[in-house]
Amino acid sequence: MEAFKNTTGRGIKDRVVIGMDLNDEFAQISYASPGMEPKTLVIDADEDSMRIPAVLARLYGENVWLSGAEARVRAEANEAFLIDHLVSKALGGGRVEVETSDYDPCDLLALFIKKCLGRLTPVAAVEKAALIVISVEDPDERMIEVLTQAIKTLRIRQEKVFFLSHAESAFHYILHQPRELWSHDVCVFDMKERGTGLWSFHQNIRTSPAVMMAEEKSYPDLKPVKFYGKPGESGKKNKLDTEFYNILYTNIEDRMVSSVYLLGDGFAGDWLKDSLKYICRGRRAFTGNNLFSKGACYSGMEKLEESGLEKGIVFLGKDKIRANLGMKVMREGRESYMALLDAGRNWYDCSKECDLISDYVNPINIIVTPIDGKGVREEQVYLPGAPVRPARATRIHFEIRMLSVNRVQVVVRDMGFGEFYAPSGMVWESEFRI
Description:
Layout: E1 2-3, E2 17-22, E3 26-32, E4 39-40, E5 52-53, E6 56-59, E7 65-67, H1 68-76, E8 80-83, H2 86-92, E9 96-98, E10 101-103, H3 105-118, E11 131-136, H4 141-153, E12 161-165, H5 166-175, E13 185-192, E14 195-204, E15 210-219, H6 234-252, E16 257-263, H7 274-279, E17 284-288, H8 291-304, E18 313-315, E19 323-331, E20 334-341, E21 351-358, E22 364-370, E23 377-381, E24 394-402, E25 407-414, E26 427-433
Parallel strand pairs: 1-17, 2-11, 11-12, 13-16, 15-18, 16-17
Antiparallel strand pairs: 2-3, 3-4, 3-5, 6-7, 6-8, 9-10, 13-14, 14-15, 19-20, 19-22, 21-24, 22-23, 24-25, 25-26
Helix pairs in contact: 2-3, 3-4, 5-8
């Protein structure tokens, strides 16, 4: 069994990319510059720990906040008030009561993220970061709303921050490994306190570009078990080994699988006997904890400077929009197609703004072209009550963005036309589904 590389270093370039894995249990940070391998921040050199417990604590009677392991230690010593499950609390909304004060849980999550990024100061200046990529298990509408609010609270420029699912982080990590490790299917198991998740990656090489997809499964009963070296624990180990063996057999017996990744401390120890033997029959097995943060780093580096390692293959996950959106415009007297949003991108990264000279042809037609090219249609955006002006004497500000993987929002603002026509202040908002 092989372990993920784990090194730290200094002297990286200013164009640093930061990858953060964030969940209810812990955060983890990797960093790199184009052309360099990502390095994962070691939090405790004595324990070789790369995970920051996702908790905050405020010292009793003082406005002093701590994070991570230090927060837990001070809380256990009855010196501070502990706040855990920061992501869940932010998603749930409401307020968090700490002694006699109430706090917005999104602000608390932002504070935790700030303290995590601050740990990079000895090796990389966060303010000089070119990109920050935050990887979460499921970036649904509410998660994106919470993360966006946290980033605004931290006053980090939104264009420097990207969000990514764990599945897509794993995709980027996989493609930056030797080709023989992903020549066939790849399985990634992630064991946490609330159960084990599985991503099964499969390639379709008959398309151009080739497509990699991930099937997701959940095994809530397969959880980490603590072994204390006491007599009689062999039965517990055998039971866990058998349970995992059965899951492995169900998922990979009839498939060509090149490699299997086992994430989480639950896979440590000597209980993986029959399971490990089964995995290693013609496959490679890896254990570790930093795949998602490194994958986020690789994603950010590809945005800055394409390496060529991901050329010719795209990831088609559940967060990718399945249609191209565009509109017909006049350019230099000729009608042409203007692309607005591209299929295959994550919905939360899809938005476009532009100014157009309009003759107020009502409605505005948005062309929706599904990714398979079938069922092309036009969605109509009406502008009721639009000011009556001569043709091509109105400037409009046009905004389009995805609200979810299949919900589109369009906002049109009347900007008038220079000194000839003052803006009316009218704004039209509409939504449609793709």
